[in-house]
Amino acid sequence: MPAVTSLSMPACTVPAFPDCPAVPVPAGDWEHIPDGSAREVAARLAAHGYALLEGSAVPGPGVAAILAGALGLGDAFTPPQYRSRAYVDGGGVTRITADASTTPHPAFGQATGQDLHADGTLQRIGEIKTTLMLCARPASSGGDSLLFNAAGAFAALLNADPAAAAALTAPEVLIRTSNLPDSHGQAAVGPAFAIADGRVLSRYSVTGTDRYDPSAVASPAALDRALAFLAAAARPGTGYYTALTLAAGQALVLANDTISHGRTPYADSPAAPRLLYRVLFTTRCNAAEAAA
After folding, report:
1. How far is Cα 188 from Cα 177, in angstroms, rounded to an integer?
2. Checking phi first, is residue 84 left (phi over 0); if not, alpha (psi -120 to 50) or beta?
3. Number of H helices, E strands in the chain
4. Checking DSSP bridges between strand 25-26 and strand 50-54, what pairing results, if any?
5. Do 252 and 63 touch, CB atoms closer than 8 A?
6. Is the pLDDT confidence value at 108 over 60?
7. Per residue in 17-49, pLDDT tens?
């Protein structure tokens, strides 16, 4: 995708965060999700980039396929580097916990925080469109989900400083490196943002394994301005940032190609460690796709 060089482009569809998280969408017992709830989730994804659901029972990993069917997401996508891992089952469901009895991912198996990122470290921009997270057990304290409307902040940057925005669309500006123990430093190079079909696509990530290369852009100073702008936008009170704590029986559906997410550190109960199930999809909700 070409870098942005001017403002002469179609108006982009960018989600807007509400002032506070909306009341969760009811999901019943997770076995039979009401059609109205599925439509409401799709509408919230289109409007805000995320939706929170709440069921009457604690979800197991099998709920992911039921919810995906109700939302029209199709089959789960497992990135190649996650296949045959002990913490990923045959349905593409990743078990996220600090329980030492499993073989953990470096980020999944620790109670430390995670900086903002897009899921799919080695996937191309826009490939993983939807992330689903189901909470079976919350942490004793902490573990808040941090959400950053990266696409919205980029649109604001594009209006305020087009040259800075252009730096983030350079084809080789963002280098993301896998930190799996046997990945041998495998990396993916690409833009941090792109515009396609009137939508802003994002893979904005600022973890310890993400790097922005000043040699990939015409103006390193413009890149510095861009990164500073986004860092300032990814803070409470800006309208681009929100946080929520998933309770047992809740699920978060996230537009991964629009919203970057992270996590605060947490403390676990040894008898009942925090447990989430995560599933990735290369599709959006049917209704959300039509509205976008």
Report:
1. 7
2. left
3. 6, 17
4. parallel
5. no
6. yes
7. 876 667 999 999 999 899 899 999 999 998 899
